[in-house]
Every structure is written in C-alpha cells, then in structure tokens.
# Entry
Amino acid sequence: MKQLKARHIMLIAALCGMMSNCLGILFNVAGLFFNPIANEFLIGRGDVSMAHTIASLGCAVGGVTGAWIAKKLKFRPIVLICTIVFAGATALLAFTHSIWPMYILSAFRGIAAGTAGTVLVTIVINNWFTGKVGLMTSLIFCSAGISGAILSPILSGIIERMGWRAGYLAMAAFIVLFYLPALLFPLGIKPEDVGYETLVLGEKTGPLQPQQAADPARPSKIDPALYALILLYACIASAATAYIPHFSGIADSYGQTAAVGSAMVSAAMLANTFGKLGYGWLTDRIGIRKGVWIYGCLVIAGIALLLKVHAGPMLYVSAFLVGLCYSLSSVGVALLSRELFGTTVHAKAYPSINMLNTFANAGLTSVIGFMYDASGNYNGALLLFLGGEIVLMVTTLLAYRRAAKIC
# Structure
C-alpha cells in the first residue's frame, strides 16, 4: 500500500470526526434520552422518538444538500456552518419544556449533520483514494461506532446524575470537539483543491486512471430495476439500525436497569466499529455478496437471541450481533452501489439512495416506539426486524443477477 502522507492522515481524522457526529451522535446515542424525556413530559416513547425521526429526515435532506453544496463551497465553510447549527440546536434542546420545540430543533440538527455527513464523506473518500476503497470506507465509517461506544456510558452517566438536559449540553460540546479536525486542518473536497493528488492504495506505481476507464463493463445510465433493488436493500439495511437507539427501552421492558441498556448500546457500538473493519476486509477478499450473507446470518442470530434472552451476559452478545447491521447499512450500501453501478453511475445514484434509506430509518424509529406503546413489549418490532433481514439477503441475490444481465 502506498504510504499515507500527513495530509491524508489529517483527512482521515477529519472524516472520522464528521462520521462520529453524523452517525455516532445523531443516531447511535439518541435512544438514551427517550425514557427520561417521556417520563418528564408525560408522553409516550413513540412521541419522543418522533424527534429522532424528524432529525433523521433532516439528515436525509442534508445528505442531498451536502452533495450540491460540495460543488459550490469549499470544505471548511461547509463544516463550520454545520458545526454552528448542529451544536447550537443540540444545546438549545436542553432548554425545551415540551416536545414541539424539540421537533423543530431536531430538524435543524438533522439537516446540519447530514450536510456534513455520509454523502459528503463518501464523495471525499472517492476523490482522495482509489484501490482498497472498501477498507478505507470501513475504517472511516467505523469511527461512528467508536464514538457511540465511548459516549453511551458517558452520556448515560450524566443523564442519570444530572438529568437529560445536562446530557444535551455535553452532547453539544462533543459535537464541536469531533468537528475540530475538519475545521483546523487545511483540507479540500478534492485533493487538487489543496495541491495534492489522489492516493492509490494497493498499487505500487502509476497515475490514477479516469473513472470511466475503471468501469468498462458498467452501463453509463441508471438501470431502473437495479436501482429499485439497491434502494430496497438500502432501505431495509438502514431501517435495521433504528433498533439500536431502542436498546435502552428494550432493557427497561426486560426489567433491567438503565446501565444495562447503556451497556447494550455500547456492545452494539463495538460491533459497529469492529464489524465495519471486518466487513471491509472480508468484502475485499470474498466479495460483497458473500459478505452480506455472512453478516446477515449473524444479525439474524442476534435478533433470535434477543427475543429469547432477557438477562445475563448473553444479552450483550445479542446486542453485539445485532450491531453488525451497521456494516450492512452505511458501508454496505456504499460498496454495493459502487460495485453494481460502477463509480460513474454510483456518483449519480448514491445521493438519492442515501436520502431515501435515511427516510426508511427515520420512519421505523417512530414505528418501533409506537409498537411498544400499543403492545407493551418489543416482540412484534423484533419479528419485523427478523423478516427484514431475510428480505435483505434475497434482494442482494436479485440485484447481482440484474447487474449480470445489463452488463
């Protein structure tokens, strides 16, 4: 692998910080606040989780906005604006006394996080690196799991000792901290913006070839059927991650303490981190299709275990296995789209796919909460999760068959 230069290391640190905010803070630790806010405001968990749904919808809109703004503004101004809006709206949540202001602030939080989030990070990765992109994407995306694993017990402890309002103020401080590398280092959306060339990973010599040359067997236009299949995969994969914020509620429904729920979230975040690294390494060697099936079976095993086991160490094992769904989502969608569409068409299709699959995640987050409010347990929601994973694996097979026909 060609040696990483200091500028590339700074870029990786900046992108990891952005992913820590977009996926780590906006999504992975949101569930810690559901129960205490519902108890104080005397409303259902579904009502509180609706704030997260709105933030997720805003994130989807922000992803498309980020792709457009990346063509208009430089890297640092984008991140600076998003830092002010995301951190500011998060801090203001601490001063709300009803759910409706939370809904409004959540929309701003989501738009800001999404604008400097997954789509922009993916664009930068594809511009700065070529070769072993799966491993590089996994490395950067797994930072969301690391931040979630670290912040879950910290924020849970703050909420338990000082209340959920102090938790939001602490969260705002972490948002600023995670954005600092992108704000302090002189980086660009494209390497040529700051006088660098694309880094070829896994190649000894030779300049970067044009993108079209890398996809000689790929169509130049989006195939509607293939797009629909990849979109279905993306929506199911993204919706699956909506279950992790509800781990605190699941633990509570099993008669466990808030600390157990926080530990379950941390276990899922560890799977988020190491699962993505493993997924990138695995798919670079055996292919994305086999990687989906291996990880899909592990997630299904985790769901089955979660339905059966309500206490003890196996509860954390089930949370870890379920947490592998993150690999099938953020990294899996990006890699699957890039492989089946090719890099040229992927650049056109990915922003809209990311937006729509975020809608799916947003919708299911509230559905899970309302299903609990209606039944008093999470069994129905978990069975829905189980069925979705089976459909996801079948969809992958159909997508590869379609790609083989049109190439």
Q: What stands out?
A: The chain is about 80% helix and 0% strand. The first helix runs from residue 6 to 28. The longest strand covers residues 129-130.
